[in-house]
Design brief:
Low-confidence stretches of chain B: none
Radius of gyration of chain B: 21 Å
CATH class of the largest domain in chain A: Mainly Alpha
CATH class of chain B: Mainly Beta
Radius of gyration of chain A: 18 Å
Structural class of chain A: mainly alpha
Largest sheet of chain A: none
Shape of chain B: elongated
Helix content of chain A: 55-70%
Low-confidence stretches of chain A: 172-176
Mean pLDDT of chain A: 84
Mean pLDDT of chain B: 84
Oligomer: heterodimer
Shape of chain A: globular
Largest interface: A-B, 82 and 63 residues
Order of helices and strands of chain A: HHHHHHHHH
Order of helices and strands of chain B: HHHHHEEEEEEEEEEEH
Structural class of chain B: alpha+beta
CATH topology of the largest domain in chain A: Rna Polymerase Sigma Factor, Chain: A
Distance between the termini of chain B: 34 Å
Strand content of chain A: under 5%
Largest sheet of chain B: 6 strands, antiparallel
Number of domains of chain A: 2
Number of strands of chain B: 11
Number of helices of chain A: 9
Number of domains of chain B: 1
Helix content of chain B: 25-40%
């Protein structure tokens, strides 16, 4: 990613494309885009990855996370015809990041290490929690829609999701 | 500035990160995130989950032409839309992305008065009501229940709801089962962003009388 951002290295980008483009397309297909539309949007996502490579902050996010957020926003803009609402860090009304130097639990491990911990934690989820997590990310359904579809009370869906999320909080267990 | 103490619930933050949270609630969450570095860190963690799930999806077939088309466009001059000059008016109170939606100073908006509170309706998608609500000190928003969920974010002043204190940046969530009432703190009016799904039903004795007339 550094090679892409700093040297505009097309070969590295080509490799990144080979890995992520099929997954981005798969993500868009799963969220309801036709094959043709998914392939179009995927190209826009990958071009955005190239053009904004300079904004990628390795300390804050892994490459997969960053590609995911770009694909997610493109999906909301194009498929839901809404504008993704995000924080504007340049806005003077935005509360700045704390500068007291005490790293948060996430900052103590790098983005790469966090990804590995999370990957293992996701693998270890009980099937009913993993299914809900997947539905929340890939089916564009509100929790009440998921509840209705699975014939579960809304409270059960929410508590299962919260259980899953707690297991995905490495190092935070002691603080809650 | 003190950090918010009442945050959106875990599952709501996650839905925001996943991109599945409905836009009116996403407005509340994004505005809260502007005021809450802790929830921004939490959101980055949820996005990392999204990144891993993306990585583990079964790859779809991508045509060679699609790749060549993208590679051929890498040198294209980027036509980024011009960055609009940010409208700072109202910025002391309204962070982005809320300020854009309000589109100007609060005083210039047409406030509608109703008893102890007044409100400005904001553009809302079908089935939702997005409003800025200003509650007079010591007064309450009308006692109500709702058909769907409600989220409220305090922007100035504060209110109490069931013994809990909400100040700037704090988020209160309620669903249809809760019959509740927020009472503004004494001193200054309490300004909040309130998003409700479905209609509100006023439940106080007077509220029941005027409920059909107000159609909140």
């Amino acid at each position: 990613m550094a090679a892409i951002a700093l040297n505009r290295d097309k070969q590295s980008f080509g490799e990144l494309f080979d890995h992520f483009a099929p997954r981005v397309k798969s993500y868009l297909r799963r969220l309801g885009a036709s094959d043709v539309l998914a392939e179009d949007l995927m190209q826009e996502v990958m071009l955005t990855v190239w053009r904004r490579a300079g904004l990628f902050d390795r300390a804050k996010a892994g490459v997969g996370t960053w590609v995911f957020t770009i694909a997610r926003n493109k999906r909301i803009d194009a498929l839901r015809r809404e504008k993704r609402l995000e924080v504007d860090m340049g806005d003077p009304a935005t509360e700045p990041e704390p500068e007291d130097g005490t790293p948060g639990p996430d900052e103590q491990v790098g983005a790469g290490e966090l990804a590995e911990i999370l990957r293992q934690a996701i693998k270890g989820l009980p099937p009913e929690q993993a299914e809900l997590l997947n539905m929340a990310f890939y089916d564009d359904k509100s929790h009440s829609m998921i509840a209705e579809e699975m014939n579960l009370p809304l409270g059960t869906v929410k508590s299962r999701l919260r259980l899953a999320l707690q297991k995905l909080r490495p190092g935070l267990e002691d603080q809650t | 500035m003190p950090q918010p103490r009442h945050h959106p619930s875990d599952d709501v933050l996650m839905a925001y990160a996943a991109g599945s949270l409905l836009a009116p609630f996403a407005l509340v969450v994004a505005t809260h995130l502007a005021l809450c570095p802790a929830c921004r860190a939490e959101t980055r963690r949820h996005e990392a989950v999204g990144g891993i799930l993306l990585d583990e999806l079964a790859p779809a077939t991508v045509s060679e032409e699609a790749k060549s088309r993208v590679m051929a466009r890498l040198d294209e001059p980027v036509r980024e839309p011009p960055v609009p000059t940010p409208d700072r008016r109202g910025g002391e109170v309204l962070p982005q992305p809320l300020r854009d939606l309000v589109g100007g100073p609060l005083k210039a908006r047409l406030w509608r008065f109703a008893g102890g509170f007044s409100y400005v309706p904001l553009p809302s998608p079908r089935g939702f009501r997005i409003r800025l609500l200003s509650i007079r000190p010591g007064f309450g928003a009308p006692k109500h229940t709702h058909e769907g969920s409600e989220m409220a974010l305090v922007l100035a002043g504060g209110f109490k709801d069931g013994g809990r204190q909400f100040l700037r940046g704090d988020v209160a969530e309620a669903d249809s089962s809760i019959d509740h009432r927020q009472i503004a703190d004494p001193g200054e009016p309490c300004l909040c962003l309130a998003v409700t799904e479905g209609r509100l039903h006023l439940t106080g004795p007077l509220g029941r009388l005027i409920d059909p007339l107000l159609r909140l």
